[in-house]
Amino acid sequence: MEIEEAILRAKNNDQKAFNYLLDTYWDNVYGFQLKRTENENDAEDITIQTFSKAFDKINTFDENYTFKTWLITISKNIHIDLLRKEKNSISQIISKDNRELFQVLDETPSAEDKLITDQNLAKLLRDIKKLKPHYQEIINLRYFQEYSYKEISTELNEPMSNVKVKLLRAKKLLAEIIRGK
Question: pTM value?
Answer without folding.
Answer: 0.55
